Amino acid sequence: MTHSSDFAPTHDVIIVGLGPTGATLANILGGYGLKVLVLEREAGVYPLPRAVHFDDEAMRVFQSIGLSDEIVDDVRVNVGTKFVDKRQNLLLDWSRPQEIGPLGWYPSYRFHQPDLEARLNNGIAMHDNVVIKRSATVTSIEMDDAAVTVSFTKDGAPFSESAAYVVGSDGARSVVRAAIGGEWEDFGFKERWLVVDVQLTTDRSDLGDYTIQTCDRDRPTTYVRCPRDWRRWEISLLPDETPEDVTQDEFIWRNVRPAITPDEGDIRRKAVYNFESKLAEKWRSGRAFVAGDAAHLMPPFMGQGMCTGIRDAANLGWKLAAVLKWGAPDALLDSYEDERRSHTRTYVETAVRVGHMMNSAQTAESLTHVISPDGSAKMNSINRGLDNAIGEATDDDRGARMPQPCLADGTRLSDAMAGRFAVLGSRQHLANLPTPLSSGDIAICLERENHPEIEALLASKAAALLIVRPDFYCFARVSEESVIDHSMGVQSALTTLAQQVSSGSA
Ligand SMILES: Cc1cc2nc3c(=O)[nH]c(=O)nc-3n(C[C@H](O)[C@H](O)[C@H](O)COP(=O)(O)OP(=O)(O)OC[C@H]3O[C@@H](n4cnc5c(N)ncnc54)[C@H](O)[C@@H]3O)c2cc1C
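That is the input. Now the predicted structure with flavin-adenine dinucleotide docked in place:
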């Protein structure tokens, strides 16, 4: 179908797939008031056991869509993971901090995925501008200069809808990824694992709160302490074991480590998965994007697959709003792949290393070489910014992860931002904001004189100005030393912001 150049698509964005990535993106775009259609193949929520962990960055995104107050009630702060050998000797300790970190949340949470999906869906229901169609299977997409047309079947009948952009958050076998072309870059990890969710019926507090990764060449296994009475076991499978055999209760009870008996819990969900490690070569083509598992796959040993999809949604969400609402040039959307692909590569590669370690590690020494170059037998979490972030090329801080200070009234930065940029600086520097930024739609200004924690943040970075992006990475840092002559550095950073994210040229 070809549209005339004055054709106006029905929707701003069509999201294909309502997993955690699509649901987060729908909440973000809904918050910007964009007209969104979500097409989901399944009639109900995903019934099989999947993610059990998310991090502080994901929680900060949930905060930004107004859902963290509810989500926090469902989760447990994660104490960490112990890697042990098959005799349960400790090989490596990946303890997680038990204090709230710089992003404003605990670094690591355990959750039950159906709880989270219900919260995300409740969030979407608050937005009249977001429509979900279930039992809708997308079959193809076509694009021209005016719009993208998404074809789907619902209850056996064919339909099509148009939008300015389509985002494929449609999982590993993404139709949208196939449509935009480009191959997977394959990192070579391929293993079959059985995943089992058990609900305890007796007190087994002796199982402990740590996740236990049993590194055993013959059969690596994982035990996870989930919220409430939920417990997770993941068991690697041998080549000759069939899904039919391993999903028998007898096989499961025999292989869970640490052990538990059928009298102590009920098997609620079980599934055999192929754990893979892949990165899509193309994340955008014209009006189409991929996000979440449609763009990357990693073994789940670091609990980062879904978190990575949530970071995709946060990155793409504000950029789509900037183009569709603020008048930013379409080229801004090219930065989605530039920023997200290389960032994701680190997580895929590290998850693969952890996977290999679980199969091969015999001693603490071999483990620490794989995972912890300082030989400390301690593992640290990945904490990294974006390598190829937008902004001024000379600004080394662009793309850094930004802390979340409290404001003078006790509210927190991410709440005050409400989807906008935050410009942090002195009253003098913020006095004459260029036109597109001064409206308050694109950015909020917070004066260091009024907010002690912002003053402390600027001082700690020796910054005269910090600009925080809606996804909480740094857009610009102007150093104290560079602000010598008529605030030129500040004006330049603000002009760059206005040019990149709005129709104004400042
Ligand atoms: C055992 C296991 C444990 C894991 N543990 C963790 C963890 O602890 N932490 C973590 O961060 N990650 C974890 N992951 C990874 C995480 O589950 C995934 O990365 C995440 O679910 C991906 O979300 P998504 O929304 O991108 O894709 P999906 O959840 O796969 O959702 C895709 C959606 O698209 C729909 N769809 C597909 N095709 C079409 C179509 N043609 N038309 C319409 N709809 C379509 C599907 O029905 C589905 O609802 C784990 C994965 C596994 C398997």
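The first strand starts at residue 11 and ends at 16.
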